[in-house]
Amino acid sequence: MIKTDILIIGAGPVGLFTVFEAGLLKLRCHLIDALPMPGGQLAEIYPKKPIYDIPGYPSVLAGDLVDNLMKQIEPFQPGFTLGERAQSLEKLDNGHFRLVTNKGTVHEAPVIAIAGGLGCFEPRKPPIANIGDFEDRGVEYIIRDPELYRDKRVVLAGGGDSALDWTIYLADVAREVWLVHRRSQFRGALDSVEKVNELDARGKIKLITEAQVVGLRGNGHLNSVTIKHKKTGEFDQDTDHFVPLFGLSPKLGPIGEWGLNVRKNAIEVDTLDYATNVPGIFAIGDINTYPGKLKLILCGFHEATLMCQSAFKIVNPDKKLSFKYTTVTGIDGFTATV
Fold it and tell me: How much is the pTM?
């Protein structure tokens, strides 16, 4: 049995940063993740994607952010159970939680921090009849390595941040980049929309709005897509890759059976400390919901910080917590000072 102070479900960026904040309070952490490596979606789905909204980093690759977080928490020596999914949970007579993974690994802790991101997920696929025939043969739902598209022709589809960000990035990588969106308005950041429009005006990419990809053609590998425009009708466009970026369909999985208040596949929390309706269980990052919620990594960092304050009181009910700021104390790590 693995015992710890805070059992963190999810080893993505928010889960990793929780280790740092908990470590400042002398709290031990152990992380569980279904993926075989730390980093969550940043490591598995888009390690080469640049992120622009991390304080102090004008731009940082997702994979590099994970590496930096791992270095930051190294002094606190967290434990990891990787490649296993959190399965069953029960409350023990001593007030602690007993969690068993799908592979039978048993954990015990007085505090559970759910930092599972979007939970279990799968990409949302466009309704194209033969799209399955070209999966991994020119159709990708996630861009893991942008070098795959070096000097290639790429058609992207979508109107959110991911579609906009990858369009901007691939403009300097691919030979041709087309972005197809079914609406004239985008859901992504205004700055990214402006950059995409600018790239289109300069001829670096081709932007087509009020249109959608409705067909795929090829012989063993994709070689063209059929685009249907609202006003001008259908036309074929030669391409080497089609990447529909319509987001992920989240599912809570076994966590949804733990008696937590859930709304639209997200766990409801109190913004005082991101506690759930079950005392001792907290939810931080993209997996939670509350009025005004923004699904940003930096918001998850803030949530983790406040959560750890309440976790300290649960783990150490007889100790007084006084925490104002942090200072570096040398190679031994960090300490909280007053």
Answer: 0.68
CB burial of residue 55 (10 Å; 0-12, 13-18, 19+): exposed
Chain centroid offset of residue 206 CA: 28
Side-chain half-sphere exposure of 168, counting CA atoms within 13 A: 21
Which tokens hold the place of 289?
A: 């919901």
Q: Does domain 125-244 have CATH number 3.30.559.10?
A: no
User: Which among 69, 35, 63, 36 is positioned nearest to 47, based on CA atoms?
Assistant: 63
Give dist(CA 79, CA 77) in Å, integer.
Answer: 7
Token pair recorded at residue 336: 């909280």
CA-wise closest residue to 130 among 230, 248, 242: 242
Give me the residue spans of the domains in the chain. 2-121+248-337, 125-244
Distance CA 297, CA 40 (A): 12
Q: Which tokens go with 298? A: 């930096």
| C-alpha pair distances (Å), 125 with each of 130, 142, 246 | 11, 11, 7
In tens, the pLDDT along 159-205 reads 988 899 899 999 999 999 999 999 999 988 898 999 999 999 999 99
